[in-house]
Amino acid sequence: MDKLTIEEKNQIKLERLQTTLNRAYKNVPFHRNRFIENHLLPEAVVSLDDIRRLPFMDRSHLGIHYPYGLFAVPLRDIVRIHTASGTGTNPSISGYTKADLMIWQKLVARSLEAAGVTSMDILQINLPPGLANWGRDYKDGAENIGASVIPNSPLSLHKTLMVLRDYKTTTLVTTLAFAEQLMDYMFASERNPNEFNLKRVVLVGEPVGSDQIKNLEERLHVDVWLNYGLSEIPGPAIAFECLHHCGMHINDDHIMPEIIDPITRESVPTGQKGELVLTTLSARAFPLIRFRTGDMARFLTHPCECGSSLITMEWLSERTDNMMIVSGIKISREQVILYLKDALGVNDPKCSLRKIRHGGTEIVSIDLVLDDSLFSDEIKNLEKLMINTSDTLAELVGVTVKITLTQKRD
Amino acid sequence: MAVQGVSLSVREGELISIIGANGAGKSTLLLAISGLLTTWNGEIFFQEKNLKGMSPPAIVRQGISLVPEGREIFSPLSVMDNLRMGAYTMYRKGLKTQVKEDFEMIMEMFPILRERANQLAGTLSGGEQQMLAIGRALMARPRLLVLDEPSMGLAPKIVEMIFSTIQRLRQEGVTILLVEQNARAALKIADRAYVLETGKMVLEGSAEELLVDDDVKRAYLGKDYGSFYDGRD
Questions:
Q1: Do residues A278 and A378 share a domain?
Q2: Taking CB atoms and an 8 Å limit, are B9 and A26 in contact across chains?
Q3: Do A290 and A344 belong to one domain?
Q4: Candidates 1.20.120.450, 3.40.50.300, 3.30.70.100, 3.40.50.720; correct CATH number of B15-198?
Q5: Torsion angle (degrees, nearest 10) of CA B117, B119, B123, B128
Q6: Do A345 and A165 touch, CB atoms closer than 8 A?
Q7: Pairing of strands B192-197, B15-19
Q8: Closest to A249 (Cα-Cα) out of A86, A51, A110
Q9: Which in A293, B58, B147, B159 has the greatest CB count within 10 A?
Q10: Which of residues A291, A321, A351 is at a domain's end?
Q11: Among residues A356, A297, A366, which one has the least CA distance to residue A327?
C-alpha cells in the first residue's frame, strides 16, 4: 500500500473515511448525535477536506463513555480489550475485532520492516506494564515478518543484558528510559557492546532528541528508530522512521492525520507546527474521529528517498496538554491530583510531580506537603496511607508511584 | 436505490468486488458506470477520462464491458452471432484478425461454447448462457470487465466454475469489477472488496479482512444472527 501514488492513496483514504463515518453514524450513538447536532450527514463528506466540518474528540470523551460507549461493533465481535489510564476517574477502554488485529499486525510489520527487520532477526521487547498492549502488537507484527520474538517480559537490567547477549538479540523494542539505563548499566558492569549482536533499537512512547539518539547509537553500536503511537487506541506504530530517517512516515492510508492550531482549532498551513489530530480509517471496533492527541508535530514537505507516498512528520517534544510522559506512558497530572484528593480526603493536596529514573524504568515521584489536614499522631497510620495511595495510583496510571512527604514551608 | 456519498476505485490488474444485499444500490452504481443512468452528481473517471455525459457506446469504446445481471444474451441468435455482436467495436476498428484470435481464446476457455456454436443462445442452460455473456463481453477486449451478479440463479457447481474462470481472467491481466450477492464466492477470488448497504459504503478492505469480519459474516456469509444481544450478563 505504501507504493501507491499520492492520488491513489488519497482516493483510498476518502473511501475508507466514508465507510468509517457511515459505520460510526450507524452504530455509535455518540457519533450519530454529533453528526445530527452539526447538521451534517456522513454522505455529505465527499472529499478529504470535508473532514474539517466534523467536531473533534479528545481523551475526556473516552472517559465519559466508559466502558464500551464508543464501540462500533457488538461486543461479541471484539477479540481483545485494552485499557489505558485515561484522564479522569474512568480509564479509557478500546477494543479490536479480528480484522482490526490483522490490520494492526500489518502496520506494525510495515514499521519494523522499514527499520530493516527481517525473518533473520531476533527481536526482544521490553516495555513497562502500562505499554503491555504495544508489546503484544510488536510481537504480532514481528511474527508476521517471521522474525524470532522474545515477547515482552519486563526484566531487570541485569537479566535483560543476559538475554540480550545469550539469545543473540538483534533488535530491541523499548522506551528511551530503559535503553539509556541499559546502556549505562552495560558500561557500569564492564560489558563491551561488542559482546552483543544488537543491531538496532526501536524506541517508542516519547519524542527523542537527536543528541540522545546519537549517544545511544554511538555507545551501543546500533541504529535507532523512532515509532509513534497512542496508548489510548490500540496501536504502537502509527508513524515510523524508514531507513532514510527523513522524518516519521505516518500510516495515513489507515490513520488520517491533521495538524491544527490548538487554540483556534483551525488547520495550520502545511509545514507549520501544531497539535496532531488523528482519524482512524479502517478500525472497525473503535473508530476515532478527529481525535486530539495532545502531541505536537509538523508535516514535512520534502519527499523521502524511499519513495513512499505516506505523509511524513516531525514529532516535537512540546505538548498541548498537561500530561507528562513517564516511561513512554502519558500521565495526566489532573488525574493524579484528583485521585490524591479522594484517597487522602483533602480538598487541595499540595504536591508536585516529577519523573525519576529507577531500575530500568521511570517512575512518578510525588512530593506531598504534610500539612494539618494530613497530619496524624500515628506515624504508622500515615505510612500505611501513603503506601496504599501509591499502590492504587500506580495501578491507575500504569507506572510505579513513589510518594514522599515533605514539610510545609512557611 | 439512491446511492449517496459513495467512492470506490479499481486499479489496473485488480479484481475488486462490491458486495451487498438486494436493493443496496449495486445496480445503480453499475448503471452509472456504464452510462445507462443519466442523472447523477459526482465524477467517474476511467484512465484519467471523465465518463460523465458519455453515451453507453462511447463508454464501451473507452474499454469498459459490462456483463449484465441476468445475462441478457440475444436468445434468437446463435452462440457465434452473440460473440460477433460483442466484437462490434473491434470490427469497426477493422481488427478482424484479432477477432479471430479472440474467438479461439474464448472457445478454449469455454469448450462448451464451441460445441454449441451454431445453437440458438436461448436454448443454452443458465451456466452456459453466463459463459456466453462473459465471452461476449471479452470479445471487445475490455480494459475493465464489469460483472453484475454472475452467480445469480446458478447451481453451486456452475458458480464455482464461473468464478474460477473470472479468477483466470484476472491472472491473465484483465481488470475486473465484480458485483455480487454471493459474498463468499466473491471474497474467495477478490483482492479487495466494498460492502454496500442501503446506498452507502460501510466497509472497505482486503478480501482476507472481510472474510473474518463478523458484520460481513452475519449479513452476507449466512451466519445466523442468533442472540443478537449486546450485553453480557
A1: no
A2: no
A3: no
A4: 3.40.50.300
A5: -10
A6: no
A7: parallel
A8: A110
A9: B147
A10: A321
A11: A356
Number of other CB atoms surrounding residue A345 within 10 Å: 11
Tens of pLDDT, residue by residue over A143-190, are 999 999 999 987 889 999 999 999 999 999 999 999 999 999 999 999
Chain B residues 138-167 with CB within 8 Å of chain A: none
Q: Where residue A74 sits, what CATH number does that domain have?
A: 3.40.50.12780
For residues B173 and B145, the answer to whether their CB atoms sit within 8 Å is no
CA A297 to chain B, closest CA, distance in angstroms equals 29
Tell if the pTM clears 0.90, that is, is over it.
Answer: yes
A226 and A347 housed in the same domain:
no
Q: Which residue has the cell 472497505?
A: B204
Position A378 confidence tier, pLDDT thresholds 50, 70, 90: confident
Grid-cell match 488525574, residue found: A335
Mean pLDDT across B55-77 = 93
CATH number of residue A395's parent domain: 3.30.300.30
**Domain final residue pick, A321, A342, A367:** A321
Question: Which residue spans within A58-182 are E strands per DSSP?
Answer: 78-84, 92-97, 122-126, 148-150, 171-175
Interface of A with B (CB under 8 A): 8, 11-12, 14-16, 18-19, 22-23, 26, 41-46, 73-77, 97-99, 102-103, 282, 284
What whole-number distance in Å separates Cα of residue A28 and Cα of residue A16?
Answer: 17
Question: How high is the ipTM of this complex?
Answer: 0.90
DSSP codes, B213-230: -HHHHHHHS-----S---
The backbone region for A168, taken as left when phi is positive above 0, alpha when psi lies in -120 to 50, beta otherwise, is: left
pLDDT, tens only, A196-211? 999 999 999 999 999 9
The answer on A401 and A280 residing in a single domain is no
Q: Do A44 and B7 touch (CB under 8 A)?
A: no
Q: What pLDDT does residue A234 have?
A: 66
Q: Domain span at residue A388? A: 329-407
Report how many domains make up chain A.
2
